[in-house]
Amino acid sequence: MSLLMILGPVELSPGVRAASAEPPLGHTAPALIASFGAALRQMRTVWGAGPEHQPFVFAGSGTLAMEVAATNLLDPGQRALVVDTGVFSDRMARILGRRGVEVERLTAAPGATIAPAEVAAALQGIDAVFATHVDTSTGVRIDVAGIAAEVRRSGALFVVDGVCSVGGEPVAQADWGADVVLTASQKALSVPPGLALLVASPRALEARRRLRVPPPLVLDLLEWLPIHQAYEEGRPSYFATPATGLVRALQAGLDELVAEGPDIAVARHRTAALAMRRAFGVLGLTLVPERPEIAAHTLSALWLPEGVDPSFPGRVAAHGVLVAGGLHPDIRARYFRVGHLGWVTSQPALLAQTVRAVGLALREVGHDCDVEGAVAAL
Ligand SMILES: *Cc1c(COP(=O)(O)O)cnc(C)c1O
Which residues are within 8 A (CB) of 168 and not within 5 positions of it... i.e. 6 or more apart? Predict the structure, then answer.
């Protein structure tokens, strides 16, 4: 089997793998209720949220969590500002458009970011701001704390797409004053794909209560609220069947993350990212993000060397490691992406295997480079 160094699904720890292999429990089984409740409490810790914040777990992927945020916060005709740093911000704008929300965008060139001052200047009449903490199509990380401070001053709601950041970058929902921070199970949390996760502020639930046009029933936070409260209080409940097997895997993953300490997990991602970049530098590769300070620690988006064509990830795969191709439409054929998120960042041998596979593939396409030197630099 290939080593997964794409942007999710990612490699699992032995503990999460074991939990994923258990047969699914009934949704009212005491063990499931205990796991569900524990996972919700652990989410508050990992998100930097307070007791007043409400975590939610949906069966679905990250895109579903985006749909939940868009349809629970805004009515058709309200105005949203999308801080657009790439493909996933664009997706959020499309979701909002389908809700009938009027969308304004601040669009960054691929590899660039949007500064808090630019956001501040665009907040007039805006009801909610949507930003992507790490845009997986470019590897750019925005200054989410700085943007959050501007949004808070304006009174608009603030939604953070943290699909490529939660568990791997500093997340501080309470300090930011963010109303929704969302992610998916298969990225930096290192759990199998299938769960959409989000934490909502009291203001977010207020916004839902005020809606004129309610969201689709299965996405409605108010339908799910008593179910999640029941799980935290240890009581059985039912609205629609949760992905019980995945909830067990989620709790195993969050257990490991909380035991390690979320800050230490973030530092582990940073260390791995800097090591990978030193190694990629020896291979002669450069980053798509314009400056090192805005390059995310959960992935490296790397320009392909002159003359190397976009089938390059297939070459790497032949050496047993899956990396991702370009995704941003403006530069798609000119770069590739290596995910280094989740459990794998604690495994130097797997990171070395990745560097070696990339280096050997580069040599095959005529790009002379020092593969063992790169592994040593890692
Ligand atoms: C992966 C990703 C998504 C989409 O998540 P899916 O689970 O593929 O639906 C959204 N936003 C960001 C930043 C992502 O990295």
Answer: 134, 187, 188, 265, 266, 269, 297, 298, 341, 342, 345
